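Translate structure to sequence.
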């Protein structure tokens, strides 16, 4: 890995003891030595591979020396942030409005209705491996003798 050094202004207030490095703020590297791109790469590697493989992949793919523990910490921190944002979004969602039934006359008539289901195993920290299932229902129209999904 090639190390990059930059000179930048550092401001410190003698009265309050606060300090600031404006360039770090602009580059989004406050409190870290890694760029946002490297941090995102660590999260992607940590999401798809065991952390111990991440060290090798980061070196091989990005030329960055980073240990598996750093990848684990960055990935878990990002996961916690995403989880927090999802929780805030979920709390803002109007569940009462969501559960209202749509009047039958407002539903479009559909001659063909397709149902698709899938399942996978996921590892949950608290519960270990568990199965998750998802499904989708969609209608289609016949065009040129074949069903075509409506968008």
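Result:
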């Amino acid at each position: 890995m090639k190390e990059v050094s930059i000179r930048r202004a550092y401001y410190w207030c003698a009265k309050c003891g606060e300090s600031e490095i404006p360039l770090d703020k602009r580059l989004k590297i406050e409190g870290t030595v890694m760029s946002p791109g490297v941090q995102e790469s660590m999260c992607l590697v940590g999401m798809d591979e065991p952390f111990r493989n991440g060290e090798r992949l980061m070196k091989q793919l990005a030329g960055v020396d980073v240990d598996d523990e750093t990848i684990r910490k960055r990935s878990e921190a990002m996961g916690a942030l995403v989880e927090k944002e999802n929780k805030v979004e979920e709390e803002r969602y109007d569940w009462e409005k969501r559960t209202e039934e749509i009047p039958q006359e407002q539903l479009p008539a559909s001659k063909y209705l397709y149902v698709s289901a899938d399942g996978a195993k996921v590892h949950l920290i608290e519960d270990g491996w568990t199965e998750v299932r998802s499904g989708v229902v969609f209608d289609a129209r016949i065009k040129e003798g074949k069903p075509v999904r409506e968008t």
